[in-house]
Design brief:
Keywords: Glycosidase, Hydrolase, Metal-binding. It contains 16 helices and 49 strands. Helix content is 22%, strand content 33%. Helix 4 packs across helix 10, helix 6 crosses helix 7 and helix 9 runs antiparallel to helix 10.
Length: 918
């Protein structure tokens, strides 16, 4: 390392919008900080620049209160003195969906461009680990670097190291994603506050800089040393120019510069004269003792994760594609509404928010934000469904009479889909405007006979279904051109098996009057084979006396036993980390008698109810409260569990659909216990040292056993849609809805343990912050799916898990002609080992955006066949910027696009005139 050093002092504040204080209290402090910053920049040219934490939402939050300051902000941003973007918010990397990460970058860039150019800085100062596809996400955004504070353990230049997974010789490293994308990684080895509160007093400054320069040089690969002047909610240092002048006088051999990330990167790259360590894939602090990974935020306040999963799915997998399809028929694409919904959702995505590691007031407000975002998404989806419904030709159902009631089932996933669908339709409706006396109107609706109604598909074939009479219902329309239109209706709920609904398409059915009684006399099929057994074409299910499940995969003959056992253990940790009491043996429902009854026996679906009445400890010993109050670090606590117990009644529903390759499992219970963790266990019995899990644009392979450095008895991981294990022949995938924590137990069975609930009473970290609502007392639920599969094509099981995330949607349709046939697909596609991620419209170009990602480490090819007119197709990046044109082999044939190993592929179609489909 050269003797001459440069100390790059970068001023910033890491701004958690909400954390140990509610949002608005942090908000007030933000206003004060920004006022002081603008004044300082106006008054002192020596105070060169300030990095605004990489998130443009700070500008929104400030201008919401100080709109009159916009011109001052714009001036300092355009002058390069305030650096903004590239993100909208600083999100958690593992608890937010793939598409949420893309929208975060896309919206952050858009908002930054209103003021100038976004800083091309991959900024992750306090993210709780980083997903493996981050380098590709950066490169597709025009960013060639990543600054982060967690995930890699550096050893320092003076130590001898062998490069390996999650190790780096320096604070600078080369980080490579699974697709081969590489960025320059900068680890805040001494944290993102290592240049905080620089003394201006010579005596204090000498001691400060002797220590700080040595600490930075220990890890740095060059003489370009980075010092971060700021910390969490840190006010700006007003006397920094004076402090820098003092440092220059005391240390003439070091150049002290009030710098920024752009200048620092340029200096660093020009001075690199040695090979950096290469780190590949996820950065999750796996080469540490395991007590500081913060992985158990994945199970803190599980209800937030479930609300997030529901909201993300509704936005990206339902509202956006339906709005895109409706726009092809002439409807306006609601860019602004969707962006508002995304922004509202993403305000819950910062690490201290979605991770569930803040004070109770923060998470109460999050619930409202989740609901607000979802309500907008649902409204967009409903409007789009109505627009599409007007174009569907249902005249074929007129043969069943004028009172036929068509409805359409939409599959907005990327694969053909079969499953049980529930749609509510009005079989008779009388509007108040018709002038019929109220009594007569209600009488007509009530007296409608429903006994002979059936459901048929678009070919007139009767479909197995259950029609439930919902009786007289009040409803109303909200027309665009007149006042609200109330009515009374006779509403029914139609439940049926929708078979082979095309990907990115729909199938239409109708409720009609039966012409004969043949349906009633026909032999009724069933999936129930005994008082505790059921089976379909793919699996057979047996429920044991203790409520556990034995599942047989018919294709391979593989039997999985003791599935769905509950495990409960104490937790004396906090919102960040799980900590089991010393010496405790977890309780389980194994060999505990359960009440088992048939819940449903339908031709297309069977389900059983399993009920456990289970006594578990009421909470931790009183000693835990004392340890919390005295700030005893969670690893040093000695509290055990209370001897007093409470009874928890857990109702498990096991559902097998006729065409399903797996078993759906739902759990409901009223939690009355504190300081504990509840999990569901899935022993696989499969011999493997590794397993797979769904992550951001990736199915990542992880080792089952921790590294030698790991001392934490718990070895939990993040998941999104699923976790999976396979051996040489077979595999088992466990999908979930918003249950983001799992562990593969080293019990000889490679059991996948999925956390359903974790109850704790404190925030943790640097102070005493009680969080009684984090005990999650009250009603709780969990939804999972067990999917066996063969080794040859695990992606088929992954596709089932992805479809499990997405709700079916349906809409009642009028009896009319239209340009769309009753069964339709907007585009077809094929690609080995590839998953569909997004369908939307670009606000910048109006292009129709399709996105996929390659699940495998092998190259593949996409063949995409739109059924609508378009002018030109382009490869695009995640910022929806057109790149190379893509030509079909022959006019009207499929567009063929190469998909490299683990590549994220975005296709942009320039759309011809709308309204010309059909």
């Amino acid at each position: 390392m050269p003797n001459r050093k440069t100390a790059h002092i970068v001023s910033h504040t890491h701004w958690d919008r909400e954390w140990y204080l509610p949002y608005e209290k942090h908000h007030v402090r933000l206003i004060k900080l920004m006022d002081a910053l603008l004044d300082k920049l106006d008054e002192d040219p020596e105070y060169r620049s300030f990095f605004l934490d990489g998130q443009t939402i700070i500008l929104e939050d400030y201008l919401q209160v100080r709109p009159q300051q916009q011109a001052r902000l714009e001036k300092h941003i355009s002058d390069g003195r305030i650096l903004i973007g590239p993100w909208y918010i600083l999100q958690d990397a593992f608890l937010t969906s793939s598409e949420a990460n893309v929208r975060n970058m896309l919206i952050g860039h858009k908002d930054a461009k209103r003021y100038g150019q976004p800083a091309k800085i991959g900024y992750f100062p306090d993210t709780f680990g980083l997903a493996g596809q981050t380098p590709q996400l950066m490169r597709q955004s025009g960013i060639h670097n990543a600054f982060f504070g967690r995930g890699v353990k550096p050893t320092g230049f003076n130590n001898t190291v062998a490069d390996g997974d999650y190790e780096s010789s320096f604070s600078e490293l080369e980080w490579e994603g699974p697709d081969g994308s590489k960025v320059l990684g900068i680890l805040f080895a001494n944290w993102y506050s290592n240049g905080n509160e620089v003394p201006a007093d010579p005596g204090e400054a000498k001691e400060y800089w002797q220590r700080k320069l040595a600490d930075a040089a220990k890890y740095a690969s060059t003489g370009e040393l980075l010092f971060m002047n700021g910390c969490d909610h840190q006010p700006i240092q007003l006397d920094l120019p004076e402090a820098i002048r003092t440092a220059r006088e005391l240390f003439p051999d070091t150049d002290f510069v009030h710098s920024n990330f752009i200048d620092y990167l340029a200096a660093l790259e020009s001075s690199l004269d040695r090979e950096l360590s290469s780190v590949r894939g996820e950065l999750r602090s796996q080469r540490t003792d395991g007590w500081g990974t913060l992985v158990n935020t994945a199970s803190s306040r599980v209800y937030l994760k479930q609300l997030n999963q529901r909201g993300q799915a509704m936005l990206e997998k339902v509202a956006e594609p339906l709005a895109a399809y409706a726009s092809l028929l002439g409807a306006a694409y609601p860019h602004d509404l969707l962006q508002y919904a995304w922004k509202t959702l993403m305000q819950n995505h910062p690490h201290d928010s979605i991770c569930g590691c803040s004070v109770d007031e923060v998470h109460r407000e999050m619930v409202t934000r989740f609901e607000k975002s979802r309500h907008v998404a649902e409204a967009v989806a409903d409007d789009s469904l109505q627009s599409i419904a007007e174009h569907i030709d249902t005249t074929g159902f007129a043969a069943f009479g004028p009172d036929a009631v068509p409805f359409t089932v939409f599959n907005t996933t990327g694969g053909t889909r079969t499953g049980t669908v529930s749609v509510e339709v009005d079989v008779l409706r009388h509007y108040f405007r018709e002038g019929i006396p109220f009594g007569e109107m209600k009488s007509r609706v009530k007296q409608l006979e429903l006994a002979d109604w059936i459901v048929v598909d678009s070919k007139g074939r009767e479909v197995d279904c259950t029609i439930t009479d919902l009786g007289l219902q009040f409803g109303y329309d909200l027309p665009d051109d007149k006042f609200r239109q109330p009515y009374f209706a006779r509403k029914v709920r139609v439940e049926l098996e929708a078979t082979d609904v095309p990907a990115n398409g729909f199938s239409t059915y109708a409720v009609v009057r039966s012409a004969s009684q043949s349906a009633a006399s026909a032999e009724r099929s069933t999936l129930v084979t005994g008082d505790r057994t059921m089976e379909n074409e793919y699996v057979s299910i047996s429920i044991e006396n203790d409520g556990s499940v034995t599942l047989t995969d018919k294709a391979s003959g593989k039997i999985y036993s003791n599935l769905c056992v509950y495990e409960d253990s104490g937790d004396i940790g906090n919102e960040y980390m799980y900590r089991q009491p010393d010496g405790e043996t977890p309780l389980t429902t194994r060999n505990t008698a359960a009440e088992i009854t048939i819940l449903a026996d339908k031709p297309y679906e069977a389900s059983f109810r399993v009920v456990h009445a289970w006594d578990i400890p009421k909470g931790a010993e009183d000693k835990l409260a004392q340890e919390q109050q005295e700030l005893v670090w969670f690893t040093g606590r000695s509290s055990g569990r209370s001897k007093e117990t409470v009874r928890i009644v857990i109702e498990t529903t096991l559902t097998l659909e006729k065409g399903s390759r797996g078993l759906k499992v739902s759990s409901r219970f009223h939690n009355q216990a504190k300081d504990h963790r509840l999990r569901m266990l899935f022993p696989t019995g499969l011999a493997s040292n590794v397993h797979q899990a769904d992550s951001m644009f990736e199915v990542v392979t992880r080792g089952n056993e921790p590294s030698a450095e790991w001392t934490n008895p718990s070895y939990c991981h993040h998941q999104q849609a699923f976790a999976s294990i396979q051996d040489e022949r077979t595999g088992l995938t466990v999908a979930n809805l918003g249950l983001n924590e799992y562990e593969v137990l080293q019990d000889g069975q490679n059991t996948i343990a999925v956390t359903l609930l974790r109850s704790v009473g404190e925030l943790g970290d640097w102070g005493v912050f009680p969080t009684p609502e984090a005990q999650c007392l009250g009603e709780a639920y969990a939804e999972l799916m067990i999917i066996p599969h063969g080794l040859a094509n695990p992606e088929a099981a992954y596709n089932e898990a992805y479809q499990f995330q997405v709700p079916w949607t349906g809409v009642q349709v009028g009896l009319h002609a239209g340009s769309l046939p009753p069964v339709y697909q907007w585009f077809g596609w094929q690609g080995e080992g590839i998953a569909q991620s997004a369908v939307k419209r670009s606000e910048e170009t109006g292009d129709l955006i399709f996105r996929w990602y390659n699940l495998t480490s092998s190259g593949s090819e996409l063949a995409v066949t739109p059924t609508f007119a378009y002018r030109q197709a382009y490869r695009s990046n995640i910022l929806e910027e057109r790149q190379d044109a893509v030509e079909a082999v022959q006019p009207g044939e499929a567009l063929r696009v190469a998909a490299g190993p683990a590549e994220i592929v975005t296709l942009a179609l320039e759309i011809a005139d709308t309204g010309n489909i059909g």
